[in-house]
Amino acid sequence: AASAVPGYSPGFKKPPATLRLKRKRPRSSEPVPAPPPCGEAPPAPSAPARRNPFSSLDNAPRAAGAPQPRERGRRPPPPSPPPAGGSPSAAPFWQVGPSPGTAVAEDLHLPVAVPAVPSSSRHEFPADWSIKTRLLFMSSQPFTWAEHLKTQEEAQGFVQHCRATETNLPESIQEPKLSTELRCAFQQSLVYWLHPSLPWLQLFPRIGADRRIAGKASPWSQDEALQQVLMSDWSVSFTSLYNLLKAKLCPYFYVCTYQFTVLFRAAGLAGSDVITAVISPTTRGLREGMRNEGIEFSLPLVEESRTRKQKNSEVNLETEVANSLEVGEEPVPSDDDDESFSWLEEMGVQDKVKKPDAISIKLRKEKHEVQMDHKPESLALVRGTNTFTLLNFLINCKSLVAVTGPQAGLPPTLLSPVAFRGGTMQTLKARSINAKARVHLAYEDIFSLEIVGPVMPHCLHALTTLLQAAQKGAFSAVLYAHEPTAVFNTDLGTASPALNKETVCKDLAACGLHPKALDQLSQCPTLGKSSIRVLEMKDYAYTWKS
């Protein structure tokens, strides 16, 4: 009865084989294979070798260049995009994307980044004035000393921070987990101060944070009276921070708005002998408002670019003149001044052509300045007593706070390494992770410590100092910076030859930072418009990549 059914075949096909037969299409140049005779099942294609899911991670890996088998029906995961703006939630530990010069473990389950850094090494890395949003430390030694702090250790760490206790650890700690001094110093290094404090909102970073803040409760957005109260309280905290900075009791602080960030630095830091304020990015409207208030400022990157172009044009002009003299021609002068219209008189049409007015000439000259708005090149530098005028300008500036959108009515974020009036003590979030990574054709244990939050320059120095002692001078780190603040590492030409390390440490002894951190931050910035991306210590010597 079975043979009477048309198209019946007693040979059953497995579903994978059937799918492969349907996917396979004969090419036009190839002959179509004849169907198998009735009663015979078509031969199923040989399936690829399947990986043993119970194989141990300690098994010897395949030789380099050998094809890696893939499980049937399993597609390789797409590469994870890099974190936008260094957002803490953009790239978890197990999705660390490979940055330039970074080797990633081959196993899909263990993509642990192994930084590759330049060969030159020093016993100290340069000051990095950008705010980090995430740090990922890796070492062959465990980070058990950073886990589950006791109540007494946590309390002692807070006390040491508030009293600015200077902690000096030995070069190497044999039993880091049993070192109470190390664990207290770790808690001390995680503390920072913030205003305003709204626990249900993440108030850093503020640039590009509309999507993250959208949908959260914001009762002040439609209440002007509440907005005035918030701004009044914010003004008191801002003024308190500036007074501490002026008295050299605060080394630096950040003002983070929804459009730009301001870094105030005390006299003696970044090679300057006066208080400085760096604003980035800026717009033409903000710069015009500062000029109208009588604030003297400079655009160092624009001036540097203008000087470079002028030198190049002078070299090109000299070359053209030399070439003209060689061929016996008269050199033709080059006049790029927009206000010069002598060529109209030579043509005899000076009365027939309408000359541009002064406003048009001004706009033409400021064309380059307008084009650099919202870019790192728009960085503005304010020095000396003009920083106090800038303080009053920012307090009264209506564009400092967003009028519409999720951040409407929300005052800017103040970040400081020391306490100030209205500031709230906060701590960075830390967690340790253990994994295995393939290194030199073998699996090795990789221990990681992740720090999330607004990591300021002094905190990065404190953490690396602790890791130097706890990890026996061998660790690596991947640093994620808030990109709009990377330009703060530019050398602004404010170096004072009369400034020395002894004077800086003496004048800022009560600012709450460790003397070695002060020594680092007093140096002139050398990273340019970039920040440190990869940092490695080997044999107590640093190498880094920006």
Automatic annotation (TrEMBL):
<feature type="compositionally biased region" description="Low complexity">
    <location>
        <begin position="47"/>
        <end position="68"/>
    </location>
</feature>
<dbReference type="InterPro" id="IPR024861">
    <property type="entry name" value="Donson"/>
</dbReference>
<feature type="compositionally biased region" description="Pro residues">
    <location>
        <begin position="32"/>
        <end position="46"/>
    </location>
</feature>
<keyword id="KW-0539">Nucleus</keyword>
<keyword id="KW-0217">Developmental protein</keyword>
<dbReference type="GO" id="GO:0005634">
    <property type="term" value="C:nucleus"/>
</dbReference>
<feature type="compositionally biased region" description="Pro residues">
    <location>
        <begin position="76"/>
        <end position="85"/>
    </location>
</feature>
<dbReference type="GO" id="GO:0033260">
    <property type="term" value="P:nuclear DNA replication"/>
</dbReference>
<comment type="similarity">
    <text>Belongs to the DONSON family.</text>
</comment>
<feature type="region of interest" description="Disordered">
    <location>
        <begin position="1"/>
        <end position="102"/>
    </location>
</feature>
<protein>
    <submittedName>
        <fullName>DONS protein</fullName>
    </submittedName>
</protein>
